[in-house]
Amino acid sequence: KAGVTQTPRYLIKTRGQQVTLSCSPISGHRSVSWYQQTPGQGLQFLFEYFSETQRNKGNFPGRFSGRQFSNSRSEMNVSTLELGDSALYLCASSFKAGGQETQYFGPGTRLLVL
Amino acid sequence: QKEVEQDPGPLSVPEGAIVSLNCTYSNSAFQYFMWYRQYSRKGPELLMYTYSSGNKEDGRFTAQVDKSSKYISLFIRDSQPSDSATYLCAMSAWYSSASKIIFGSGTRLSIRP
Q: Which of A52, A108, B81, B96 has the greatest CB tally within 10 Å of its CB?
């Protein structure tokens, strides 16, 4: 089975711009979560989608948004980029077994905001 | 206080040594415990997954959970330079949502040849 794929892998933007990141989950996984990872804050949960619906949202401003398509692929968008948005953005797809969600992460998109 | 505490390291040990990585937590509802390995510039990779208290062994890796002390450990035997990475613990209660998985901040491990 192919793993979680994310595109692009690297991105450089300037303040004020917007960016869209893409994630393709493992085949058969319907849940997709997004995380922001920075050296100072570690892994922070952004949002989770399941069957095209946002199931949960973390404590991030409205500039961060996402969506999921019928084929479970997901995109996240960040508008009006700020320097502090520079981070590794990770997507994880998950499936439920025995009552527990087990997550598999993609390689991430490294975003640099100048 | 964070729900999950993990020493960020860095931890440097010689090749062949036994490595012990640890996390403590405060939420007694946590029942599922995971360890992820993250190489530089890569996404986290699931290493071990345990439910409730006890030990689980997989090759050179052993995960240990002590719910009474709210303490989990990952042991790496015969450590190799290829084990050099950041190790993240993660845990969750009886929730069926990825948003309820809490991650530690990660411990950076370096194995010296």
A: A108
pLDDT in tens, B18-47: 999 999 999 998 988 999 999 988 899 989
- B67 within 8 A of B3, measured Cβ to Cβ: no
Q: Are residues B99 and A48, on separate chains, in Cβ contact within 8 Å?
A: yes
In this structure, the number of other CB atoms found within 10 A of the CB of residue B59 comes to 8
Provide DSSP, B5-57. EE----EEEETT--EEEEEEE--TT--EEEEEEE-TTS--EEEEEEESSEEEE
Q: Which residue is listed with tokens 């809490």? A: B102
Residues of A in contact with B51 (CB under 8 A): 98, 100
- Compare all CA atoms of chain B with the CA of A45 and give the residue at the minimum distance: B99
